[in-house]
Amino acid sequence: FSRPIAVKGTEERRKKQTKTKTHGKDGKRNIYFPDDDRHSLKQMFEAEKSTTAEDQNSMFNRAAMQNHERLDEDYDMDDMFMSKAALKENSAKQAERERKKAIEEHQRSQRSVESCQWCFESKEMAKHLIIALGTKAYICLPPHESLTPGHCLIVPIQHVMSSIHADEDLWEEIMNFRKSLVKMFLLQDKDCVFFETVKKLRNFPHMAMHCVPLPKEMGDMAPIYFKKAIMECEAEWAQNKKLVDLKNRNVRKAVPKGLPYFFVDFAMDPGFAHVIEDEQGFPYNFAQEIIGGMLDLETNMWRKPRKENFDAQRRKVMEFSRWYREFDITQKEKE
């Protein structure tokens, strides 16, 4: 009988060694559960945003079954075996649901990439609109009528959903492109506004950051117009703070992954961000409408922008390329 006793003693010692310490040496509680220190608040928030109602119900059922034996005085061995079997069955169903969910997300992302107008390798990409091609991103002109002369976009080469999902190398190249555009428009005595609208993340959109040049006097007024418009957008009972000031930080530090958002910067100066709560009610052309109102443009310029033929697109590409030639960071890198 000495062997089983030794095994039992070993198991007891192992349990004692792996037991989580919830209190410090001073007697104060540090954590409540063993995994409290494994995830940050941001990680838990992102995980919560990605779970469905079905996932929440499954978690509730598992927790209820685990606590049943502690609450029921008539709990016996038969109940224990039935409970274990039910838990095993629920775990298997949960694993199958997660597998199907992963397959569906992969298929949805593949469809999005294949039909994406911004992916460099996509057949839908209008490559003749590209102005400068970097290693991670490129500058191109819009395929429709530009909001103002010089209206352009900074777009990742690979399928990246938003600025928040961009890695450090991509973000650095985007910022370098921004600096070069600011210098170019400054020489023309113009200011510029950079903005991005991110919605319907479940459909795996492709990031596209707009750059719209403005007359210098309008550029000075732009922060006031955008701040007022953001404060007045969506419902008064919005759960999130309507206006997020990006002073001393960028949008990547201000908005968690998994949330739709809008952000605007003014040249290289920080601007504002807004977490979108009503995706149906928040328009994609939110910034275009503000700029159109500032410049007193026709409403069709942003509501229903007209498609341009190839000749019109070629002319504006040649004009923009002439402006940008001496500021092109991709050509300097090649030299």
From TrEMBL:
Example of a GO biological process term: mRNA splicing, via spliceosome
Spans through the membrane: none
Record organism: Halocaridina rubra (Hawaiian red shrimp)
Compositionally biased intervals (Basic and acidic residues): 23-39
GO cellular component terms, semicolon-separated: post-mRNA release spliceosomal complex
Region named Disordered: 1-39, 88-107
Pfam families reported in the protein's UniProt record: CwfJ_C_1 (PF04677), CwfJ_C_2 (PF04676)
Domain of life of the source: Eukaryota
SUPFAM superfamilies, sorted: HIT-like
Annotated family: Belongs to the CWF19 family.
UniProt protein name: CWF19-like protein 2
Residues annotated as domain Cwf19-like C-terminal: 104-227
InterPro entries: Cwf19-like (IPR040194), Cwf19-like_C_dom-1 (IPR006768), Cwf19-like_C_dom-2 (IPR006767), HIT-like_sf (IPR036265)
Cwf19-like protein C-terminal domain residues: 236-330
